[in-house]
Amino acid sequence: MVHRVDNEGTDVPELLESASLLVPEDTATDNDITVRDIWDYLVHDEWGTALGLLEELGDARPLPLTYWEKLAEAAERLRMERSAAWCRWRCSEIRNGVFRADLTLLAAAEARRTTPIHSGVLRPMWDLGHLLPTGGRSVSIAALWMENTPLLEPGGRATVRLVPLTPAHWTHVQTGRQITMHEDRAVAGIAVILEVRPPATTMPTL
What we know:
It is a single chain. The protein is an alpha+beta fold. The chain has two domains: 89 residues, no CATH class; 101 residues, Elongation Factor Tu (Ef-tu), domain 3 (Beta Barrel). Helix content is 30%, strand content 26%. A hairpin with a 5-residue loop joins β3 and β4. The two termini are 30 Å apart. The N terminus and C terminus are likely disordered.
């Protein structure tokens, strides 16, 4: 599918080409798509397809912040809002770190939330075991993105990605840890940490 825009998109090919140069040639998606295949789409001005495949290549190995920034800008110029949001999210993961977790929301009858949550919109509070000087519970904020689904209904379960607002609050959280999600004082969901990726302090070796 060919994605074209007017004057706003005149530099989209350059952004995508520049991003593709940051991908090692031996990197491949699960479907064995490599950066060489993407160049074929760029030659034929199939920018939307090329963008989607570059996003997939970004899951195959760690790539630098600049890579995701270029993809985000290209997506915005192509008016591909979902892709732009995802690429901006990946930028935040590189800056702040990310925790992948298995999240189960409490059912509507057990919690105040009766509507689904959406990826990248909600910034709930998380009980990580910290206490206030007074002995009360101290919570930390982390944005939430669902993998493989745009929304999660009350009572539902999904693999999620959490980007902490203050990474220093999360340094003790390890794989297997159970944490609780809060939108107010009551528990809204329970998450078990599946994977921990700290903030990128240096550019990945290509």
